Amino acid sequence: MNESPDLLETLALARDFLSREIACAPASVARIDDRESDADPLIILDREACSCQKCGLAQTRTSVVFGSGKTNADLLFVGEAPGAEEDRQGLPFVGAAGQLLTRMIEAMGLTRKDVYITNIIKCRPPNNRDPKPDEIAECQPYLLQQIDLIAPVVICTLGRFAAQTLLQTTESIGRLRGKIFEYQGAKLVPTYHPAALLRNAHWKRPAWEDLKLVRKLYDGTEI
Ligand code: URA
């Protein structure tokens, strides 16, 4: 096989993601990319959200975890809600699941700076409980505006909660994953949550298939 060095590196990262043992290095994450501008409407919205008091989570959070990455990314990842580490740092997916997400993105041949990462809700539910319907309803406008401003080509939802919320369905993640849905002019592909992959290594193979589909949609080689 005559693989280019880049492809070989990507294949090595994919093997790394698929292997059972993942030694996660700390994620190197910035809230916004290097080309940020004070006039960027997404940055302005981020600042507004930081003082949000629309639901009870404002009383218990340390930080509003608005999102991080490239403000005009073609690929948007949407998770569930910040956990303890995300609440502490004010950044999405920086705990154990986040470090696996970083590996997944790298296995696709991208970096966290190439994509944008956010959650359905922006503040940590106490004790990592599921977000409540009123919290989702109050937070939804932020996500819808994020999608509108970023205008991604592909949205990859992580886990049952994000897929069910965006697609307004109660279908299981096992049935939703790997399919292509239309969402606000973007292609939406649900896959497993990285935290679930840390618990169930046998889901990594289907998750890798989903990520390859996401990459093809990102490249425009899959319609
Ligand atoms: N899990 C999520 O869904 N989002 C995060 O930001 C971290 C963990």
Record keyword descriptors for this entry.
10 helices; globular; 223 residues; binds uracil; 6 strands; six-stranded mixed sheet; alpha/beta; Uracil-DNA Glycosylase, subunit E; 11% strand
Give the helix/strand layout.
Layout: H1 5-18, H2 41-49, H3 57-60, E1 68-69, E2 75-79, H4 84-89, H5 96-107, E3 116-119, H6 133-150, E4 154-158, H7 160-167, H8 173-176, E5 181-183, E6 186-191, H9 194-199, H10 204-219
Parallel strand pairs: 2-3, 2-4, 4-6
Antiparallel strand pairs: 1-3, 5-6
Bound molecules: uracil.
Uracil is lined by residues 79-83, 86, 92-93, 95, 97-98, 119.
Shape, per Cα inertia axes: globular
Which small compounds were modeled alongside the protein?
uracil
In spatial order, strands of the major sheet run: 1-3-2-4-6-5
Q: What is the total tally of β strands? A: 6
Task: Tell me the distance between the termini.
Answer: 28 Å
- What do we call the CATH homologous superfamily? Uracil-DNA glycosylase-like domain
| Radius of gyration, whole Å | 17 Å
Provide the number of structural domains: 1
The CATH architecture assignment turns out to be: 3-Layer(aba) Sandwich
Low-confidence runs = 20-27
The arrangement of helices and strands along the chain is HHHEEHHEHEHHEEHH
Instruction: Tell me the name of the CATH class.
Output: Alpha Beta
